[in-house]
Amino acid sequence: MEILVVGSVALDSIKTPFGFREEILGGSATYFSLAASYFTEVCLVAVVGEDFPESHIEFFRKRGIDTSGLERQHGKTFRWKGEYGFDLNTAKTLETQLNVFADFSPKIRPQHRASKFLFLGNIDPDLQRSVLGQMDNPRLVACDTMNYWIDHKLESLKKTLSVADILLINDAETRQLASEPSLLKAARIILAGGPKTLVIKRGEHGVVMINAKSIFCAPAYPVEEVNDPTGAGDSFAGGFVGFLAATEAADEAALRKAIVFGSVMASFNVSEFGPGRLASLTYPEIEARFREFRRLTFFDDI
Amino acid sequence: MEILVVGSVALDSIKTPFGFREEILGGSATYFSLAASYFTEVCLVAVVGEDFPESHIEFFRKRGIDTSGLERQHGKTFRWKGEYGFDLNTAKTLETQLNVFADFSPKIRPQHRASKFLFLGNIDPDLQRSVLGQMDNPRLVACDTMNYWIDHKLESLKKTLSVADILLINDAETRQLASEPSLLKAARIILAGGPKTLVIKRGEHGVVMINAKSIFCAPAYPVEEVNDPTGAGDSFAGGFVGFLAATEAADEAALRKAIVFGSVMASFNVSEFGPGRLASLTYPEIEARFREFRRLTFFDDI
Questions:
Q1: Which 240-299 residues of chain B touch chain A by CB within 8 A?
Q2: ipTM of the predicted structure?
C-alpha cells in the first residue's frame, strides 16, 4: 500500500572523520523515501529550489518514487552543513540555510489524498496537521519531530501528537518532551497525550518501542564501518513505515518486524556517505540482514 | 559447580539524584558473589580491615557464600566514595582509600584450588595471574579490568588476557585497550590477543558478546526506577558466570542465556541502593524476568 511522506529535501555538506562531501542529496524525506521504496510505493511531498539538480529527481524516479508532489520554487534549495566527531553519535550543525523550505506549505494533490499510510517528517507541527487535514482517511499516521519544535511549538506539537498513531523520536527528545529523566516514565507520559505507539531511536544503541501493552527492545545492527550517520533515523523510519505499508498491518508482531526492517535500512545507510547505499541495495540483501538480525539477538528459553 | 571469585570488598559512600548512603557494603567481589549465589556455590577471596562489620560477613554466609577466603587484615577496609548525575551512566569518584586493599596478595586455600570456574575481578593483572597460577586446572577463566590497568599495566594485562577465556569490559575500555574507535574492530583486535570471548558491557544500552564465530546483542532490561547503578557490571558478571557454572556449560547457547541472566541480575541490582535487592531476590523472580526478557526481544521471522 502506498505511503505519502512530507518532509525536507536538501543539499547537505557533511564532514565525518572518514571524509567530506559537499552539496550531496539529503533531507529527511529523501532518506525516508529511498528506504521505504524497497518495500512499497512512495509519494514524496517536499520543496526544492531552482538549483536542485534534475539528476536527483531522476534518481528518485529510478527507485520508483512518485515525485509529482515535489514542488520546485523560485529560490535556492534547503542546505545543511554538519560535522561528526569520532563517536559519530551527534551531529554538530555548522550551517542551516532554509531557503525555499522556509515558506514550505505542503499542498497534497487530489490523487495523493487517498494514501493510507502517512509519514509526517520533521517539519513545523502546524504543517504536519495541515497535511493530515488534506488527507481523506489515512489508516496509519506516523510522525517525527525534534527538539526545536519541543522548545518553540510545544502546544502545536501536542495537538499533532494527539492525532498521530506512532511517534518516532530520539531518547533525549523523549525526556525533554515529557520533562522526565526516566525514559520509561517519559514514554508513559507521552503515550498518555495521544500516540498509540512510541518508537524511541537511540542511534548505535538501538530502538525501544513502547505502547500500552508491551515494550520491545532491539539493538542496533553492529556495523563494522560507519562512514556517515546522516539519515540513519530517517532511513530507519522509511524501513519501518515501508514494511507496515507493504504488509498492510500494524499489530504488535508486524510492528516488531518493522522495527527490525527499520534497523536494517539504517545499518545499510550509515556505511556510505549520504544516501549512496540506499541506491545500490537489493531486497535479498535486506532480507538476509533481517535474518542475520535474528541470529544476532536469538537466545533459547530456559 | 563452584565458582571462585577474587576481587574487592569495600565500604561505599554513594550519592545519586535519589539519595545518599554512607559506608554501605560494596566492592566488585561483593556484587559478583551475591548475584552468583542465586545460581551456584561461591567462594569469595578478598581482604577487609578490622573495622569491617561482622554483620556483612554474616550476610554473605546467609546467601550460602563461602567466606573462608575472606582475609581480615590489620588496618581499615577499602573505601570508595562516588556520585552519579541524572544520566546515571558514569560515576564520578570523589574519594578512594585503598587501605588494606593496597597490599592485597590473594592466597588461595588448598580446598579452593580445585574450583572449575574462576572470576578474576578488577584487580592488578599481576595478581590476577598469581591467582590463576595457584589454581589446579580451572575449566573457565573470566576476568574484568578497568582503564587504570590499561593505562598503567598494559603489558601485564595483555599477559592475563592471553590466558583468559572470557574478558568482561565496558565499551570505552574496549576502544581504549585496542586503540581503535570502531567497537567491532576493537573487539577483533582484543580477541586476537587471547580471550576466546569478549563481553562488552554498555550500561543502560545492553551488552554485546563477540567471539570468532558469532556476535550476540542484548539490550539492557528497561528498568523504570534506577536508584543506584553501583555494582551493575559486577552483578551482571555474577549472573553470567553463575549461570555458566550452574549448567557446567560454555557453548554459544549457554553463553547467550548467561548474558541474559547477567542482565537480569544487573536490572534487579540497580533498583535499590547498594546490594540491597541482591539480598531479597528469589530464584522464581529471576526466572520470571528472564522470560520477560524473551518477550521484550522476540520478533517473528519473515
A1: 253, 256-257, 259-260, 287, 290-291, 294-299
A2: 0.90
